[in-house]
Amino acid sequence: MAGEREAHRTPEAARSAGDQHALAFQESRLGGHTSLRPAGRTLGAKVASFAAREAAIARCGADRPRARRGDTFDGMGRPLAMDDAPALVAPVRGPWLVSRRFDLTWIFGGAVVGLLAAAVALNRPGSIVALWWLWMIAFDGPHMMAAYTRTYLDRRAWQERRRLLLGALAAFAIGPICLGIDVAAGGAVAFPLFLGFGTVYGYYHVIRQHYGFLALYKTRAGERSRRVFLVDKWCLYLGCGLPYVAFVATHPRARALAGLAPDAGPPAVLLAALVLVWLTAVATFVAVAWRTRAGAGVPPKLWYGAGTMLFHGLVYYAVARLEPVYSASAGPDQDFLLLSIMVVVFHNVQYVALVYVHNRSRYGALDGGHGAAAWAIRSTPRFLLVCLSFSLVYFALARSTGVFPWFHDLQGVMLGPLRANDLALATWWGLALHHYYLDQRIWRIKQDPALREHLGLRAA
What is the mean pLDDT of residues 272-276? Predict the structure, then answer.
């Protein structure tokens, strides 16, 4: 949107004659320094644009600080510090979303956190409950709030997407309605179905996010083939989905939740077929990605897609067989604590990183009418603290459900015909459904040119 793009320039610079030229920048690394220079213009246009930018800086009273090694630069050619900069430039064109180091740490790194959690829990099973609460407070809650920083905290989002922001709140009513249906019918059917739907939708949400990141890498690589798009999409869906299906079909406690006989299981030939199809999906993805790569080396898309499928295979074909790690498990919400941590922390870390990249670009330079969203991203510590603050609410709500280990608040409390714990559980899952629905609406890159720009995809 024009207003959002204008927010990355000072008002004086926006009115200057030199600003009539497009400020397209190329990154060059000389001696370890990063510099930005105007591209694709005549010498006279470059001189005029440079003079206009210098005049704009002078009118704003800004001094040009000396560039230092590793500086990031803004659209006026001034170095920015990571934490106190008003805005970050969009990621430059290349195979990585931001940079090799950033992507490997934050987009891929959540999987490593999950593997470390598994190593600790399997060697010291008594730590699993502490690890679960740590994950929920330090990772899952903040990733929820990250989504809200670019929706409910954004004043302009309220102007442009009011119907979505208000309509999505209906997700909180689904659980209580199901509870009411069960009370009226004198049974327990609607609410268990609601919980089952939330569980499956949650895993679909995780897979969709992984495909979203894969699509970002495909866009950065300039891929346009419809055939390759379909191969990548369905290989990833099968590569992440089939291990989950095999887990539900074979794990006794998962089978019981699905309404299947716990002690039975699918024929061995069917399980072998699931594994064979999964391996075929992984191999097909790797082969097509390698054959269609641009240039030498292994593209990030291949690393990410294959790594994600192998990670989910490890989780559900191997680690899941050891659940419940929590020996005192008293129900389905305690049976699969380690699986929850491993699968979702991967999702959490990369999601917070993506929102951070987006928000620094969208809100970083000037307020632009965005309100609290712009305030929250003024520094990296502030953004992380804002995200972490939501965990206070998240933790209090989780304690009140009565289904998770260690904390059992509100036990025995009735609110009319309904147990307070059930209402808290309904709200807990309502929060999850609200996040799933809102998230799938706000990351539609094809339909949102401004979103593409703020993710650095405009020139990809």
Answer: 94
User: How open is the CA angle 193-206-243, to the nearest 5 degrees?
Assistant: 80
How far is the C-alpha of 65 from the C-alpha of 72, rounded, in Å? 12
What torsion do the CA atoms of 432, 436, 442, 447 make, to the nearest 10 degrees?
-170
- What b/e readout covers 52-88, taking b as 16+ CB neighbours within 10 angstroms? bbeebbeeeeeeeeeeeeebbbbbbbbbbeeeebbbb
Residue 5 has pLDDT above 70, yes or no: no
Question: In the predicted model, is pLDDT for residue 43 greater than 50?
Answer: no
Of 16, 307, 351, the C-alpha closest to 212 is: 351
Tokens found for residue 94: 């290349």
In tens, the pLDDT along 275-305 reads: 999 999 999 999 999 998 877 788 999 999 9
Q: What is the DSSP letter of 295?
A: S
Within 161-251, where are the H helices?
Answer: 162-167, 171-185, 190-220, 226-250
Residue labelled with tokens 């083939």: 225
If one counts every other C-beta atom within 10 angstroms of the C-beta of residue 282, the result is: 21
Mean pLDDT calculated for residue range 185-189? 92
Q: What is the CA radius of gyration of the chain?
A: 25
The three-state (H, E, C) secondary structure of 410-443, written as one string: CCCCEECCEEHHHHHHHHHHHHHHHHHHHHHHHC
pTM greater than the 0.90 cutoff: no
Task: Give the Cα separation of 176 and 174 in Å (integer).
Answer: 6
Q: What are φ and ψ of residue 224, in 5° steps?
A: -130, -5
Q: What is the Cα–Cα distance from 127 to 122, expressed in whole angstroms? A: 9
Domain chopping of the chain, boundaries: 2-80, 111-454
- 209 — pLDDT class (breaks 50, 70, 90): very high
Q: What is the mean pLDDT of the chain?
A: 83
Give the tokens for residue 49.
């644009």
Query: Position of tokens 């097509």?
Result: 288
Residue 315 neighbours by CB under 8 Å, 6+ apart: 114, 243, 339, 342, 343
pLDDT at residue 60 is higher than 60:
no
Q: Which residues contact 255 (CB under 8 A, 6 or more apart)?
A: 248, 249, 261, 262, 264, 265
Cα 421 to the center of its chain, rounded Å: 29
Q: What is the pLDDT of residue 365?
A: 66
Beta bridge partner(s), residue 35: 28
Q: Is the pLDDT of residue 38 over 50?
A: no
